[in-house]
């Protein structure tokens, strides 16, 4: 787990090229003068507050922070952050942010997107950003519904979802964003919940410290079109059995007094939930977010029941070091200069076979 | 005859590679002022390479030249078939020329398909060099020859040179440790050697080229050089080629300077690197491979030591998206594509219009619609460039006229983008992209100053006296908004595709504001300063021919023909399609007739008729090939007389 820094980002290597703030910052430094226009009660408010509250901890010059979004309710986010920002077009934020991050390594670039924006119209850009490992932090607000277009099912909606566009129930199987990200070679994948500010902040902290693309799926309540979608994870009593908190290096246990645990099924190699006994306690899986193989992280992402959300792991599934695209791109430029010298335009233009016409 | 060719081993030793070869002078030499040669063969025969090499030899000799590569979209189309024929046409002269030529004087046909596909373009009397080894019964039947055209008299009107190119090549390479198949592959170099002898081309460049191209396979390099020399020696010794030709350098056709041969895509790439230097901004290319634009991506990716970043994206949309992101960050941002890619990029171009950020969209047009003709030329994306977006989304359009002009067009597109903070479309096409011509290499101090000033501080004072930054407060002259890049303290701001309030840039749905913003964005583009249209009209003609883009060469050649025949015709050629030059309306109004030839169904004519209410006459061709000067001259004559 990343250390909590109280002295700015001096200790975070991933942000070493981003200039530091000269003065101590507070949450209000990150609030823009724009009126927030989400529906009252929307989960987005909690996420905004958590992000604005977390940013001072990074201690970065706020002019070097950029939020880029696509289209959808969540994508209004940049307007409310007093940093640089771009509210772009549907699904394209990862592509735009890739251009920005790969050309400006002195920036901390964040992408805010939703389940429709990232997984439907922008699915291609998301998976390619993840495999490239560009230095982006992607916040995927998953409310399992289309909000801004007023309530059609989304690519994360459960099968059979009754919506305006699916009066007899939706037919297509949903994506599991964490599984998808792991399959797309993501180097950092986490899940958290809008209402759990402490957990959300901790995940942001770890994502910020990660070098490369970080994908954070944030379960977010749409109280207008899909209210209570994650209630089972939020209601204190139900959450005991539903939520599995992943912590690197810790046995994966949950339930009252940690009565339940995740073990590997000796027959299938898959993961399963058991009641922990003195006999099987030693077999409870110890979470290793840094494992080179994505296999167990993927198995964890499949643990939850997609309908009831029982056994939903939250926290960092996977966090591994992998070459970062923008770093390598810059390295190639440096290498080219080392090998060929700094570009000489006159020599370039006059290259090849030439001839001279004299008067 | 092959007995007179020295053995390859001796050849490889006897002369230093790269040494200039000269004809022995025992044969007749005839002087010509210009020649059009077409090399044609299977897609796998190396005709493009052969043509490129002959072009380089010709360029370094100092002739004026113009080329027309023409190849199928398939990498290896079925061998020996008509659709699989690949050709390269080169026109070179001792004076200035404008086109790759209408009809070849010489055809090199490597197989029956190449003969069949090209014979129709040859005037009677033209020279045909055929590779007789490929004229087997089966190969001839494959393309519908019932009898051998080499024997049935059907080529009687031509000057036919039957040469067993394959056998001669294999014979010349017999002492190399090569399979027959490997040796046969050098037959294009044998043909190149023969043609190089015939036209007194300098040879050292080709030998150096082969040495460096096959640096890792010295045997193959030596074999190719041996084949090349064998071809030369064959010309020198065989009685079938009684005459060789001299075409003097075009010394008087060119202004003083240093020249090189350059293709449109290379010139465009260099123009972008030059624009980056002149603007003092790093170049960022976001692109997805597409014919015929990919060569720009390839070329720019070689120049990382100029600080050039090239990003091969997952699709066309991500290509322009990344470029736009880089533009937000202060790069000179470019995306390169062809028509189908522009269609995919449309929404992002619209976003760039709304964000008012500089961005170059390079469209190397090809035959459409849809996938169309990927390797053939067309200029049918003009209306897509002009109108292909939702909402009122005006975008300036610049079009180069010749391959070398792509360099200047790139600088001009960058000037407009940077000065006016707008996406700019640059419309090249397959003909310009792959064709080449001599280019006078500019001195760096001739290049335009493109430096820009990023916003540094507040630009507005509120009523309460506080100083603020307004991202949409415009320059009163250009109507450009400030370019405030991330990392600039105090200028933190948010921009987006939603309509924004004038000045503050905050989201605004107010009706009057939207009306104002739509009109202001249009006024900004309409107000772009572009040079007046220059009309070439030495005789006070009544008919004007107006063109744009790559039709410049054929139109100018046609106009010369007409004037030489005593006709009076005025010519003007548009580089700026949006906005049009200020004087265009006056120019159009001063002629009785206006003819607009285009490689589309009349797209410029549509714009001109709509804007200036001029009864412009459209002359169109959409066959994937550039206009031929003769055919165009005939059409213009009809317009003059009509």
Put simply, the count of helices of chain A is 11
Figure out the total of helices of chain B: 21
The major pleated sheet of chain B works out as: 7 strands, mixed
Strand content of chain B: 15-25%
Series of H and E elements of chain A: HEEHEHHEHEHEHHEEEEHEHHE
* Structural classification of chain B: alpha/beta
Structural class of chain A: alpha/beta
Based on CA atoms alone, the radius of gyration of chain B comes out at 27 Å
Strand count, sense and barrel status of the largest sheet of chain A are: 8 strands, mixed
> End-to-end span of chain A in angstroms?
74 Å
Helical residue percent band of chain A = 25-40%
Radius of gyration computed on alpha carbons of chain A:
23 Å
Number of DSSP-assigned strands of chain B? 25
Question: What ranges of chain A have pLDDT less than 50 throughout 5 or more consecutive residues?
Answer: 1-9
CATH level-1 class of the domain at 17-236 in chain A: Alpha Beta
List the strand order in the largest sheet of chain B: 11-10-12-13-15-14-23
Portion in strands of chain A: 15-25%
Count of individual beta strands of chain A: 12
User: Major sheet of chain A: order of its strands?
Assistant: 2-1-3-4-6-5-11-7
Q: Average pLDDT value of chain B? A: 94
GO molecular function, one term (chain A): thiamine pyrophosphate binding
Protein name (chain A): 2-oxoacid:ferredoxin oxidoreductase subunit beta
Organism (chain A): Streptomyces viridochromogenes
Keywords (chain A): Oxidoreductase
Can you give a write-up of this model?
The complex is a heterodimer of chains A (359) and B (642). Chain A starts with 42 loop residues before the first helix and ends with a strand. Helix content of chain A is 29%, strand content 18%. The N terminus of chain A is likely disordered. Chain A has a domain of 220 residues: Thiamin diphosphate (ThDP)-binding fold, Pyr/PP domains (Rossmann fold, 3-Layer(aba) Sandwich), CATH 3.40.50. The longest helix of chain A is centred in the N-terminal third of the chain and has 16 residues. In chain A, 47% of the residues are buried. Chain A contains eleven helices and twelve strands. Chain A is globular, with a radius of gyration of 23 Å. In chain A, helix 6 links the parallel strand 5 and strand 6. In chain A, helix 1 crosses helix 6. By secondary structure, chain A is α/β, with parallel strands linked by helices. Chain B is of the alpha/beta class. Chain B has a seven-stranded mixed sheet with strand order 11-10-12-13-15-14-23, with helices on both faces. Chain B has a six-stranded mixed sheet with strand order 3-4-2-5-6-7, with helices on both faces. A five-stranded mixed sheet of chain B has the order 20-22-21-24-25, sandwiched between helices. In chain B, strand 17 and strand 18 form a beta hairpin. In chain B, helix 2 packs parallel to helix 7. Chain B is globular, with a radius of gyration of 27 Å. The N terminus of chain B is likely disordered. Classes of the chains: A alpha/beta (359), B alpha/beta (642). The interface between A and B is large, with 63 and 72 residues.
């Amino acid at each position: 787990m990343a250390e909590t820094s109280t002295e700015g980002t001096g200790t975070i290597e991933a942000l070493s090229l981003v200039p530091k703030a000269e003065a101590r910052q507070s949450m209000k430094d990150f609030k823009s003068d724009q009126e927030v226009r989400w529906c009252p009660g929307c989960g987005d408010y909690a996420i905004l507050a958590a992000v604005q509250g977390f940013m001072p901890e990074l201690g970065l010059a706020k002019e070097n922070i950029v939020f880029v979004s696509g289209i959808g309710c969540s994508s209004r986010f940049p307007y409310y952050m007093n940093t640089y920002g771009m509210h772009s077009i549907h699904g394209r934020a990862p592509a735009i942010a890739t251009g920005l991050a790969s050309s400006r390594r002195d920036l901390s670039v964040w992408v805010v997107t939703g389940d429709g924006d990232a997984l439907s119209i922008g699915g291609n850009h998301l998976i390619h950003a993840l495999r490239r490992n560009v230095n982006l932090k992607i916040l995927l607000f998953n409310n399992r519904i289309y909000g801004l277009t007023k309530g059609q099912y989304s690519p994360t909606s459960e099968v059979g979802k009754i919506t305006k566009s699916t009066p007899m129930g939706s037919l297509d199987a949903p994506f599991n964003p964490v599984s998808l990200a792991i399959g797309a070679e993501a180097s950092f994948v986490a899940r958290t919940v809008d209402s759990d500010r402490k957990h959300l902040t901790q995940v942001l902290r770890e994502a910020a410290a990660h070098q490369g693309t970080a994908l954070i799926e944030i379960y977010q309540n749409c109280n207008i079109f899909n209210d209570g979608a994650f209630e089972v994870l939020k209601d204190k009593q139900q959450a005991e059995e539903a939520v599995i908190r992943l912590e690197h290096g810790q046995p994966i246990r949950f339930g009252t007094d940690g009565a339940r645990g995740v073990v590997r099924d000796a027959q299938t190699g898959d993961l399963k939930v058991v009641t922990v006994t003195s006999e099987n306690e030693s077999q409870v899986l110890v979470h290793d977010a840094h494992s080179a193989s994505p296999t167990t992280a993927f198995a964890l992402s499949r643990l939850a029941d997609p309908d009831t959300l029982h056994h939903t792991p939250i926290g960092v599934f996977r966090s591994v070091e992998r070459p970062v695209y923008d770093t390598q791109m810059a390295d190639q430029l440096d290498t080219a200069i080392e090998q060929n010298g700094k570009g000489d335009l006159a020599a370039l233009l006059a290259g090849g076979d030439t001839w001279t016409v004299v008067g | 005859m092959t007995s007179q060719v020295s053995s390859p081993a001796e050849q490889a030793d006897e002369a230093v590679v790269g040494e200039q070869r000269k004809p022995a002078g025992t044969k007749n030499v005839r002087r010509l002022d210009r020649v059009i040669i077409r090399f044609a063969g299977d897609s796998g025969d190396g005709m493009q390479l052969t043509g490129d090499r002959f072009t380089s030899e010709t360029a370094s000799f100092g002739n004026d030249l113009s080329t027309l590569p023409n190849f199928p979209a398939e990498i290896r189309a079925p061998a020996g078939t008509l659709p699989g024929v690949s050709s390269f046409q080169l026109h070179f002269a001792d004076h200035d020329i404008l086109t790759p030529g209408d009809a070849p004087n010489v055809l090199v046909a490597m197989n029956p398909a190449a003969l069949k596909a090209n014979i129709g373009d040859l005037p009677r009397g033209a020279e045909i060099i055929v590779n007789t080894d490929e004229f087997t019964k089966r190969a001839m039947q494959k393309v519908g020859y019932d009898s051998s055209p080499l024997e049935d008299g059907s080529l009687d009107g031509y000057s036919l040179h039957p040469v067993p190119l394959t056998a001669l090549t294999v014979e010349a390479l017999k002492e190399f440790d090569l399979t027959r198949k490997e040796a046969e592959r050098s037959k294009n170099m044998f043909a190149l050697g023969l043609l190089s002898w015939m036209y007194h081309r300098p040879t050292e460049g080709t030998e150096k080229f082969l040495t460096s191209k096959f640096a890792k396979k010295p045997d193959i390099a030596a074999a190719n050089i041996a084949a090349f020399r064998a071809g030369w020696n064959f010309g020198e010794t065989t009685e079938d080629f009684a005459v060789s030709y001299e075409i003097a350098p075009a010394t008087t056709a060119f202004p003083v300077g240093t020249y090189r041969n350059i293709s449109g895509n290379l010139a465009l790439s260099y123009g972008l690197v030059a624009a980056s230097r002149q603007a003092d901004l790093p170049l960022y290319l976001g692109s997805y491979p597409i014919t015929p634009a990919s060569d720009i991506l390839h070329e720019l990716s070689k120049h990382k030591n100029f600080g050039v970043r090239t990003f091969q994206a997952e699709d066309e949309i991500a290509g322009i998206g990344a470029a736009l992101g880089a533009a937000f960050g202060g790069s000179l941002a470019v995306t390169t594509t062809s028509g189908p890619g522009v269609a995919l990029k449309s929404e992002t171009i619209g976003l760039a219009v709304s964000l008012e950020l500089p961005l170059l969209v390079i469209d190397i047009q090809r035959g459409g619609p849809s996938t169309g003709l990927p390797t053939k030329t067309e200029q049918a994306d003009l209306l897509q460039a002009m109108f292909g977006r939702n909402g009122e989304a005006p975008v300036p359009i610049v079009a180069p006229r010749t391959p070398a002009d792509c360099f200047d067009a790139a600088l001009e597109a960058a000037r407009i983008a940077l000065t006016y903070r707008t996406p700019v479309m640059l419309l090249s096409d397959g003909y310009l992209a792959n064709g080449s011509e001599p280019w006078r290499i500019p001195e760096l101090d001739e290049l335009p100053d493109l430096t820009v000033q990023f916003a540094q501080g507040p630009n507005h004072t509120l009523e309460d006296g506080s100083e603020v930054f307004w991202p949409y407060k415009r320059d009163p002259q250009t109507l450009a908004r400030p370019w405030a890049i991330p990392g600039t303290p105090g200028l933190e701001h948010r921009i987006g595709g939603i309509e924004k309030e004038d000045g503050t840039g905050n989201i605004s749905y107010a009706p009057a504001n939207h009306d104002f913003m739509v009109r202001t964005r249009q006024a900004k583009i309409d107000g772009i300063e572009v040079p007046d249209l220059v009309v070439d009209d030495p005789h006070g003609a009544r008919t004007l021919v107006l063109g744009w883009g790559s039709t410049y060469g054929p139109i100018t050649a046609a106009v010369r023909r007409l004037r030489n025949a005593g006709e009076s015709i005025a010519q003007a050629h548009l580089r700026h399609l949006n906005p049009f030059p200020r004087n265009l309306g006056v120019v159009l109004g001063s002629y009785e007739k206006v003819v607009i030839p285009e490689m589309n169904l009349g797209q410029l004519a549509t714009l001109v008729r709509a804007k200036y209410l001029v009864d412009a006459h459209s002359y169109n061709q959409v066959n994937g090939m550039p206009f031929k000067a003769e055919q165009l001259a005939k059409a213009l004559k009809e317009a003059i007389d009509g």
